[in-house]
Design a protein that fits this description.
Blueprint lengths: L14 H5 L34 E7 L13 E7 L16 H4 L9 H14 L7 E6 L2 H12 L5 E5 L4 H9 L3 E5 L1 E2 L2 E2 L1 H9 L10 E4 L13 H14 L2 E5 L14 H9 L5 H7 L13 E6 L11 E6 H13 L6 H44 L6 E4 L6 E7 L14 H14 L5 E2 L15 H4 L6 E7 L5 H18 L4
Parallel strand pairs: 4-5, 4-8, 8-9, 9-10
Antiparallel strand pairs: 1-2, 3-11, 6-7, 10-11, 12-13, 13-15, 14-15
Keywords: Aminotransferase, Cytoplasm, Pyridoxal phosphate, Transferase
Pfam families: Aminotran_1_2
Main location: cytoplasm
């Protein structure tokens, strides 16, 4: 089947993007590596002056039969300074250190990007042909770049009613207004999204972007179903906006929580499904249903390798990605050479099969962590209608809903204000030696003249607040102790001792 070209969506570019001219110096940087060119045109230092001759990294060996700890079954990866050193040869996928540490390749080093292109074809059933990938320094950088590529000050974007606070702050800092889209325990409600856009104030510019975290959403832990993604994509086509798919938790899909230990045991011992079974178990992505190039997907190694790599990538249509490359040439230049060399060497030695093995093992570890966290929540938090425990099916966060109006001092000390109860519980929990984060920190705030239909503001109980916790950060015994401290505060505050 011949795939179509992407749709031209460059009319959604920002004024900054339209005004930016390519750097003349960047147009010739590729000639630096041409052996037939004596390169005198740029301020590049000689690699002889770099004080590192090689980079040596120990990494575990697929298929990780003894686990995914780096100290087990480890193998040494040597990344050399130059390709033509006598008696030395680079492995396939290794980036010469002399090149990795030099200027150039703002889109990402070829060896790494080739791996990611192949990875993309395995994970996503791409529906158009002119797509590509571009390296980033993680999804935070990718999102801030996206705002600059598409948005002017005063523009409106759509975001989940509760969303990642740093992403909201980045928009606010650039003068971009975030407009909340109602969500439930399964993420964005497509009918509410359609209602907002169908009733948008006549003559007012519609949003260019929808920012969403579809899998293991931060902070709510919710995950969009395949059916909802299809509906949302059709709304994007109708109203001509781009979907920004922020997916750092995509491979941490652990399935529904099962209380019954007997039923659960089979899942917990199925450590190593086949690659085919693993791929079939993954949720459909917005990217995989995109026929027009109106999805920008942001991926990161932060949650699957390490946050300190500061390395990720975006996938989208080539004509849109050109604007990112032009921006990055003026801002980040490129992700760190050390990181690209190290990650590329590791992934290419593992191969696509080995990387899938890694992701399978990692998902299993998160399954065990999720189950332990939810077990502890049910064990320690009182079984009452005041509290609702929300087991996630993906990601690294759990949430607990609390009916603030049930607090004995709700109408007196807290003036019937649920946010005051929320702040008080947060302060009290901190004083008892545990940190969980209040939901109020993640509210998408910033309505503008386009009138939001009244129905989309309604929630079943305005006195419900929630707290977000993570099961990823600490060992199981500490996690249980932390949840117990949290539960003890709730019991005392709501007079349930």
């Amino acid at each position: 089947m011949t795939l179509p070209e992407s749709k031209d969506l460059t009319h959604l570019f920002s004024d900054e993007t339209r005004a930016r001219k390519p750097s003349p110096l960047k147009t010739c940087i590729h000639l630096f590596n041409d052996p037939n060119i004596i390169f005198l045109g740029g301020g590049l230092p000689m690699s002889d002056y770099f004080p590192w001759d090689n980079l040596s990294v120990d990494s575990p060996i697929p298929p990780f039969t003894k686990g995914i700890g780096a100290s087990i079954d480890s193998r040494n990866n040597d990344i050399l300074k130059a390709e033509l050193k006598k008696n030395e040869k680079l492995h396939d996928g290794d980036i010469p250190l002399a090149r990795a540490l030099q200027y150039g390749f703002s889109a990402g080093q070829p060896e790494l990007m080739n791996f990611l292109r192949e990875h993309t074809t395995i994970i996503h059933n791409m529906q158009y042909k002119d797509w590509d990938v571009v390296a980033t320094t993680g999804n935070t950088n990718a999102w801030e770049s996206t705002l600059r590529v598409f948005c002017n000050r005063g523009d409106v974007i759509l975001a989940e009613a509760h969303s990642f606070s740093s992403s909201l702050a980045a928009a606010q800092a650039q003068g971009v207004i975030t407009f909340p889209v109602p969500i439930d325990e399964h993420g964005i409600i497509p009918s509410k999204l359609a209602q907002i856009l169908d009733n948008w104030t006549e003559g007012a510019p519609k949003p260019k972007l929808l920012y969403t975290i579809p899998t293991g959403q931060n902070p709510t832990g919710s995950s969009l179903s395949d059916e909802r993604k299809e509906e949302i994509y059709e709304i994007a086509q109708k109203h001509d906006f781009i979907i920004i798919e922020d997916e750092p938790y995509y491979f941490l899909q652990v399935g529904r929580y099962i209380k019954d230990l007997g039923e659960r045991a089979k899942l917990e011992t199925d450590v190593r499904p086949t690659h085919e079974k693993f791929l079939q178990s993954l949720a459909k992505t917005f990217l995989s249903i995109d026929t027009e190039g109106r999805v920008i997907r942001m991926d990161s190694f932060s949650k699957v390798l390490a946050p300190g790599t500061r390395l990720g990538w975006i996938t989208g249509s080539k004509r849109l990605l050109k604007a990112y490359i032009s921006l990055h040439e003026m801002t980040i230049q490129a992700p760190a050479g050390f990181t690209q060399a190290m990650v590329s060497s590791t992934l290419n030695k593992w191969g696509q099969s080995g990387y899938l093995d890694w992701l399978i093992c990692l998902r299993h570890e998160y399954l065990l962590k999720r189950n332990h966290a939810i077990d502890c929540l049910f064990k320690y938090i009182p079984d009452t209608s005041i509290f609702t425990i929300n087991p996630p099916i993906a990601g690294m966060f759990f949430t607990v809903n609390i009916d603030a109006s049930a607090h004995p001092e709700f109408k007196t000390k807290f003036d019937s204000d649920p946010t005051k109860v929320e702040q008080h519980i947060y302060d009290t929990v901190i004083s008892n030696g545990v940190l969980v984060v209040p939901g109020i920190w993640f509210i998408t705030d910033g309505e503008t003249t386009p009138a939001q239909p009244k129905e989309s503001k309604e929630i079943s109980n305005p006195n419900i607040v929630f707290f977000r916790g993570t099961f990823a950060a600490v060992a199981p015994e500490k996690l249980e102790n932390g949840i117990k401290r949290f539960a003890d505060v709730l019991k005392k505050e709501f007079a349930l001792n």
